[in-house]
Specification:
The chain is an alpha/beta fold and 574 residues long. It has 15 helices and 29 strands. The strands form 7 sheets. Strands 13, 14, 15, 16, 17, 18 and 29 form a 7-stranded mixed sheet that branches. Strands 20-27-21-22-23 form a 5-stranded parallel sheet, with helices on one face. Strands 1-8-3-6 form a 4-stranded antiparallel sheet. The protein is globular.
Length: 574
């Protein structure tokens, strides 16, 4: 039977992707931009150029196309008067993924990224339509896979899957080609893929990377923003999961200068959730990636500065300079200055003490379940270890692709650790088998996972099963390495203690609810001691912490004003 091709986003929502603005809307946009002329045949923007923001056409026509890193061109759209160029990357001036050329003499209004953000906020109804178009255009670019980087290698190769996950979770378009199924890929593989090489990456500019790291690919695609940031931010947020993104949205929308940093991608663990069904306002559920993606765009709309990927290696909690600033060191050698910091680094799944576990990570052992993993598990048996909501969401999602899903939990069942709706869903799914009182005991395989062994904790009986995919969602360990030299008070499990539970070293200082033992340093989400470890709770804490940040900054400003007042100066001379 012939496979039915699913309609693209352009087929179903083309009018929203490429709306034509009327006279009144054009006048509203024009207030935020500057007039530009383009000659016939002139490039408006090329893929890889720094983001130009939004270009609104007043007269003439501009053709937009995608060009992949192998030189193949795919037409996208032809814009006339009232049409406009731009997508979500332009909110922060990221490199363009499209080519645009003037087909005729063109008159246009160019709106720079800062002015574009101002436009989206000031003109709410128009901003809603523009934002929707920008988001849908990025979705269309990802669907088409005809721009960005080209990955050449086997779909199931660990480096290929790792990089596709990285690019996918950051919302960057790319394509993956099998060397034996594409002539261009074969030619490059014959030239560069010597013995032991598993992957080539062709950058948008044509550079060829051999088995590169995520960071190397990010740099070649222009994802990594290497600008120095000498400014003093009101708040630096470390971690771009639900808690960090929520704090960024509320802080930026209230006029604070915000920098958000994350070492890998936005969304955190929640970004890998296939469907979240118990989050307020989404009765039919929403994927973690979609929820995080919306928050990521929303934070940028309000002016939050995003630095992803960027790894914070250390934070100095000693106050420096006249501004009593905190300093955060990045792995690439840069230093960020901020008046306050929000630690939203979350928690990572525990790694059980098993021989060969590290060897099979990315080669059959996974800590998330995205559509990439789901495809390679098609019609196979998989094992999931864990009994929390993340494990339940993964089980339900993978059951739509795998022949069978076996869930191993240490306890007697799921009631104490999982939401009721997920338990009911699991019980109602025929190809999910729940095995209580079980723990892993051995992993087997050569270059990749080939078999898993587990034992019954009640009687020691062992079972071995040949399979290629094991998903781990067991417990959580806090990501607190960056504050190891800071002296923040931690609980016995290593999570950051906040509020009145702190044994604050300053006897006269009473920390706010989400404030750590160091004034001006806050913790939200899974990294915080006592947090509920739920997406809704993390988002709530991210919103709540902003009020405490305002209070801290107000006290700091008042103290500085007192120190610098004429009366204080007179007292100092007595």
């Amino acid at each position: 039977m012939a496979q039915v091709q699913q309609p693209s986003i352009a087929d179903t929502r083309g009018a929203q992707m490429f709306p034509t603005l009327g006279v009144a809307d054009i006048a509203r946009v024009a207030r935020f931009g500057r007039f530009r002329r383009y000659s016939q045949g002139e490039w408006v923007v090329r893929a890889g150029d720094a983001g130009m923001g939004m270009t609104l056409i007043l007269s003439g026509e501009i053709t937009v196309s995608q060009r992949d890193s192998l030189g193949h061109v795919t037409p996208i759209h032809r814009h006339g008067p009232g049409g406009f160029l731009g997508e979500v990357g332009q909110l922060s001036g990221r490199p363009s993924f499209i080519d645009a050329i003037a087909e005729t003499e063109v008159e246009a209004v160019e709106v720079s990224p800062p002015q574009l953000r101002a436009l989206l906020i000031a003109e709410a109804d128009l901003g809603e339509r523009l934002t929707r178009a920008f988001i849908l255009r990025r979705v269309g670019l990802i669907e088409a896979g005809a721009s960005g980087a080209t990955l050449i290698g086997r779909a199931k190769a660990a480096p290929v899957m790792r990089l596709r996950s990285f690019l996918g979770r950051n919302g960057y378009p790319h394509q993956q080609l099998e060397p034996d199924q594409n002539d261009d890929a074969k030619a490059l593989a014959d030239q560069y893929m010597t013995e032991g090489v598993q992957m080539l990456v062709i950058c948008p500019g044509g550079d060829v990377l051999v088995d590169p790291t995520d960071e190397e690919v990010a740099r070649c695609m222009g994802i990594v923003d290497m600008r120095e940031r000498p400014e003093l931010y009101d708040v630096a947020i470390v971690g771009a999961g639900p808690a960090g993104l929520s704090a960024a949205v509320y802080a930026a929308s209230e006029g604070l200068s915000v920098l958000v940093m994350d070492c890998r991608s936005f969304g955190g663990q929640a970004g890998a959730s296939s469907r979240i069904e118990n989050y307020l306002g989404f009765p039919t559920g929403i994927s973690g990636q979609a929820l995080a993606g919306r928050a990521f765009v929303q934070a940028q709309k309000f002016g939050a500065d995003m630095l992803i990927p960027a790894k914070v290696t250390e934070m100095s909690c000693e106050r420096h300079g006249e501004d009593d600033e905190l300093r955060l060191a990045l792995e690439d050698g840069r230093t960020v200055r901020a008046r306050t910091a929000v630690i939203a680094t979350g928690a990572r799944y525990r790694r059980p003490d098993l021989d060969a576990l590290a060897r099979f990570e990315g080669r059959g052992v996974w800590y998330w379940a995205s559509p990439i993993e789901a495809r390679i598990c098609s019609r196979q048996t998989v094992v999931i270890v864990g009994g929390g909501n993340s494990a339940g969401q993964a089980a339900v999602f993978l059951a739509n692709h795998a022949a069978k899903v076996i869930m191993l939990v240490r306890g007697p069942g799921l009631a104490a650790t999982m939401s009721r709706y997920l338990i009911d869903r699991i019980q109602g799914t025929a190809n999910i088998e729940l095995l209580p009182h079980q723990e892993l005991c051995e992993l087997e395989g050569g270059d990749s996972l080939e078999a898993v062994c587990w034992r019954d904790r009640r009687n020691g009986q062992q079972r071995r099963l040949a399979l290629q995919h094991l998903f781990m969602f067991i417990g959580a360990e806090p990501e607190t390495g960056l504050i190891s030299q800071c002296g923040l008070e931690l609980d016995q499990a290593g999570f950051i203690i906040t509020g009145r539970a702190c044994a604050c070293p300053l006897s006269q200082y009473k920390p706010e609810l989400l404030e750590s033992s160091i004034p001006g340093v806050f913790a939200v989400g899974d990294v915080r001691s006592g947090s509920v470890k739920r997406v809704g709770g993390a988002i709530g804490e991210g919103a709540q912490v902003v009020a405490s940040i305002h209070q801290y900054l107000a006290r700091q400003d008042a103290e500085r004003a007192e120190r610098t007042s004429p009366a204080a100066a007179a007292r100092a001379t007595v």
